[in-house]
Amino acid sequence: MVPLDVDFALTQPWTVLFGPSGSGKTTVLRAIAGFVRLEAGRIAREDLVMADSATGVFVPAHLRPVRSAAQAAWLFPHLTVMRNILYGCGRKSEGTDQVQAADEVMALFRLEQLSERLPRALSGGERQRVSVARAVVSAVTFQGPGKALLLLDEPFSGLDVTLRDELLANLRGWLVRWNIPVLSVTHDVGEAFQLGAEVIKIADGKVVDQGQVSDALAGERRLLMDQLSRGSFKI
Amino acid sequence: MDIDALWLTLRLAASTTVILLLVALPLAWWIASGHSLGRAVVQAVVALPLVLPPTVLGFYLLVALGPLTWPGRLLMQVFGHPLAFSFAGLLVGSVIYSLPFAVQPLVAGFGAVDQGYVEAAAGLGASPVKVFLSVVLPMARTSLLAAAVLAFTHTVGEFGVVLMLGGNIPGRTRTLSISLYDLVQDGNYMAANRTAWVLVAFAMAALLVIYLLPSVRKMDGRQADVVR
Q: Using N-to-C axis directions, what is the helix angle for B87-111 and B3-32, rounded to 10°?
């Protein structure tokens, strides 16, 4: 395994961790979410230190102002789509708010027709959309000082490009409106450009570049354009 | 057949099952949620009644619950009488004797719930208790049913511990299996046969429930198809 040694700060509404498979992107998300402990280092969100190896602080995952969706959907098999989506709702907000948020997100992800289905009756792409929608609802209804950081690991990797682009655009606008910061993982250049986000480029366990997508991924973009113009993609 | 003994047996088995589930649920979740020397030792101790002669367990419980040890003397003060040769004493013995039959299916069931579901729930802000009650337990519900049926049936079928610990007091500690033993000693084979048949029918019914359990999952699948 590649030793992971990264240092970065999130300053934009949506930040993308970009890098090849095995470069450590998922591990970074899991460390922020609280599923892995750091050998050495510090993770903080605004004033709250969530993990610090120097002082021994380790806030358990469920108490962090962080909501996450893994790459696999992990839908609870005994709950309907609607119940899955409402699972992570903040406890204090009353029913109508929750249902309102859930309804909006269901519409955003085109899930209205599926709300009473059980996960086993969904296709792979549908499951992935429910999983991301579930994390989004949980982040929007988060109760606490400040907003929850939303962590999405390859949120749209299994979707066809047309649907992905539409969902991304809608979701981005909606989350900006709710003021929810996002850190997502992708190895897809198109997805990073579509988001127009801040990009943190990771390779071999290190941050190699951070900046606006047009700068940080300029090389990748040029390569892609060259390939397209030379027609070297075999279909 | 001894109706008092049947009633006592059912009461003992039901009480044992309730107490066992309360003890076994957290214990099994703890055992299933990691690997460590402590867990291995606890699991081995829990499994001991599977391999020990019941008379060994009965003997040590008889000593431990009696006036020879401090826990026994403490219990005598709390209850006002020795726990041995009483229903409460039988209950303690049954809980320990049937513990592996409740814990093992639960450990297997909890272990089969992928850690991914637990992390998904925690990543949505669910506390460990909420994760256990709303995700792990419902997903392991067939194991829960199996644990309850096995604990109940195994308690109905116990003999050695009851004989050592409870003696043979009608209406208080004489269970069906003891009653059967008595009837055979008396040469009353007709009554013994009836009692034995009740125990056979009981065990058969319980095992049928266990082996029919996977169909519970299939039923869920059909419901999903209906919704579709």
A: 40
Give the total number of structural domains in chain B: 1
Domain boundaries, chain A: 1-65+148-235, 75-143
Which amino acid is located at A106 in the chain? Answer: M
B188 reaches A (C-beta below 8 A): no
* Tally of residues, chain B: 228
Q: Across the strands, what pairs with A206?
A: A203
pLDDT at A92: 55
Q: At residue B50, does pLDDT exceed 80? A: yes
Instruction: List all residues of chain B from 90 to 149 with a beta carbon under 8 Å from chain A.
Output: 114, 116-117, 119-128, 131, 134-135, 138-139
Bridge partners, A14 (sequence order): A182
Euclidean distance between the first and the last CA atom of chain B, given in angstroms as a whole number:
53
**B7 shares contact with chain A (CB less than 8 Å):** no
Check CB contact under 8 Å for A33 and B123: yes
ipTM for the predicted complex comes to 0.90
User: Under CATH, which architecture does the A1-65+148-235 domain have?
Assistant: 3-Layer(aba) Sandwich (3.40)
